[in-house]
Amino acid sequence: MEEKGFYNTIAQTSTAEFKDRGSKFIAYAFPIETADDFKKQLQILKKEHPKAVHHCFAYRIGTDGNNFRSSDDGEPSGTAGKPILGQIDSKDLTNVAVIVVRYWGGTLLGVPGLINAYKMAASMAFQVTPIIQKQVELKYSIEFDYTQMNEVMMVLKQFNCTVIAQEMQLFCMIQTGIPKNRLEEVLYRLKELQNVVTKKLNNS
Known about the structure:
Layout: E1 6-10, E2 14-20, E3 23-31, H1 35-48, E4 54-61, E5 67-71, H2 81-90, E6 96-103, H3 110-127, E7 131-135, E8 137-145, H4 149-158, E9 162-168, E10 171-179, H5 183-192, E11 197-200
Antiparallel strand pairs: 1-7, 2-3, 3-6, 4-5, 4-6, 8-10, 8-11, 9-10
Helix pairs in contact: 2-3
């Protein structure tokens, strides 16, 4: 995934329900940028479903393939988190999390039954949300005098950069996501402008 200028993710939160022998598996798929985003969602769902017996999940963040996690949350090892992560990976998605909330139905499903249930619930959640392509972006801050606002904005617009945050006073600061495959051009163009300072932000 590393060399492509784009990655696949989902556009919005979706939910789907799978039932097997009385047990209910409710899958929530949602886009995330950080592990903190994921933790917030998990807390919300735990509050919404206090009577559920398990909150199993998997997520993948970033494009280097190293930032992922999965949890069986008390289910037999490998029966929940791995099948959920498998669905994320089979669709080549990142910056995505899936939490599957299980309500116990009184009948044991066994290992194959559990694997199938968590896999199906995650798969169904992806079927009802659009998969989109986003540019791989590196985050930078740009500092400049307010008189240069138009020139800086023109460069950002021309190369499809995302404005994440901005502070506009006499001295302005913009946090931006620069498409990875246009990075050199953007930095070169910004360098050409007088007194414009660009800094790479650590979390990208």
